Amino acid sequence: MSQIYEHEALLRDPFEYVSATAYFAGAASLVIGSELAFVVPVIAYTGAAVFTLRGIQRFRQARKVRQYQKNLTRLPIYKMSSSQLAKSYKKQFLGMGFTWTAIHAQRIYDAELPRNEKYIRLPKLYRWVRKFVYQNENNRRLKLLVKFLDSDHFLNPWKPLPDLEGKSYLHAVGMPEGEEKILQPLSTRVAHTL
């Protein structure tokens, strides 16, 4: 997958799902039909275990690609209470972030290519639902439907995006590596931050 090569290929169809399915099918056929293939049960079960492990690996790789693509338009919601804020007299907590490297610049470049617009543009149905909610927010007959579509309920497939200014994919390019707390020394503020 992408970890072997210098240039990542995360904006593509996750074809690893196909090979994962083939591995799982091979494992199932070895377990169910080992007698038909004239394979000793011990060898069949060992082969099925190897196929299953390889299928799990390929499935995880595909899920990583799919999760990256999903995060380009929809970042996970980040919330914290005031009690979770770091209490320090030397540092100020700015939020969560990641160290920007060349790979992140490459991911941004790839995302902004015209052929990859489908990965950073919200789907038509999602845009239509958001427009519908906006146009009918004061409609009494559709009040329950609009309230549901405008909620963050787990059954709502068209949840509103978090209030995040700018391009969400700028934040998403660092998600595979994970984020960490960004702290600023209070001595460097010098009236530049409220």
UniProtKB/TrEMBL annotation:
Transmembrane segments: 20-53
Keywords: Membrane, Transmembrane, Transmembrane helix
Protein name per Swiss-Prot or TrEMBL: Conjugative coupling factor TraD, PFGI-1 class
Organism: Suttonella ornithocola
